[in-house]
Amino acid sequence: xxxxxxxxxxxxxxxxxxxxxxxxxxxxxxxxxxxxxxxxxxxxxxxxxxxxxxxxxxxxxxxxxxxxxxxxxxxxxxxxxxxxxxxxxxxxxxxxxxxxxxxxxxxxxxxxxxxxxxxxxxxxxxxxxxxxxxxxxxxxxxxxxxxxxxxxxxxxxxxxxxxxxxxxxxxxxxxxxxxxxxxxxxxxxxxxxxxxxxxxxxxxxxxxxxxxxxxxxxxxxxxxxxxxxxxxxxxxxxxxxxxxxxxxxxxxxxxxxxxxxxxxxxxxxxxxxxxxxxxxxxxxxxxxxxxxxxxxxxxxxxxxx
Length: 305
Ligand code: EPU
Description:
Layout: H1 6-13, E1 19-22, E2 36-42, H2 45-57, E3 62-65, E4 71-73, E5 78-85, E6 90-93, E7 96-100, H3 105-114, E8 117-118, H4 130-136, E9 139-140, E10 143-144, E11 149-156, E12 160-164, H5 166-169, H6 177-180, E13 187-194, E14 196-197, H7 200-217, H8 237-243, E15 250-251, E16 254-256, E17 264-266, H9 272-290, E18 299-301
Parallel strand pairs: 2-5, 3-5, 4-18
Antiparallel strand pairs: 1-2, 6-7, 7-13, 8-14, 9-10, 11-12, 11-13, 15-16, 16-17
The protein binds uridine-diphosphate-2(N-acetylglucosaminyl) butyric acid (EPU).
């Protein structure tokens, strides 16, 4: 039976601040995707918890959105409720930092450098939020958030507030219990990381150098979703795409970056269907040429059928 009953719709429409048929494309780094059937922007964890609990009680599908940097939203949009998580507070106690899930990783990287803390410079290469980084163990330059994470705080619908240590999160290369395991549907409210005291100016110099290097190898000024595929063990998706002769391959207004083979760029007006066709074409061609099955890193959500 569909969740779309009169009482569920009445409940959704009565949520404070809710918007119907709200555009999502502009809330993703790809700039692609249809609308959210219902959309809420929430910062207070209690308010997010209440909204999620309400959805669970009524079997209403919900999706938690951060900075929308690793998402491909279907052209027909997302059914149910999309909650954009915007809690951006942070707290520094000695060398430990607790940051709200809605804070951007790049912003936090600058905040901790200002506080003369080291060990978080890699985050300057991570476009998403703290919550998104925990959700999929995001990282850059070979360093992932799991290497500095002490705990994540959040809640599981029906089971209330929880604090998860790294083993409970089963973090691994672009995966976690939140994305792929027992904690699916749970909300990350904040994350605590352990850093070291050091010279903040040195951290800033290193971040500037890393950003320069990244801008030479990745199309960072374009509309994209970051890496499209996970790197297969011992190899690089970008290298494989290049070797398959697919740089510059196009479907509609979606094109495989000529700078980095593991990026797809929305040249303007690309549809989710364009991108998906291109992803599938790349997977088929790399499999045919090299026998390697690429696995998308980008998360495809919404109504595809
Ligand atoms: N390469 C090519 N052709 C290309 C692209 C890359 O031959 O078109 C080669 C490079 O020369 C290099 C190797 O492939 O020898 C690896 O490339 P690169 O250093 O650019 O890193 P990557 O493995 O493609 C990873 C992360 C990025 C992160 C960079 C920088 C994944 C899937 N990607 O990319 O993360 O920014 O390292 O450290 O793990 C993301 O996850 O969204 C992301 C952008």
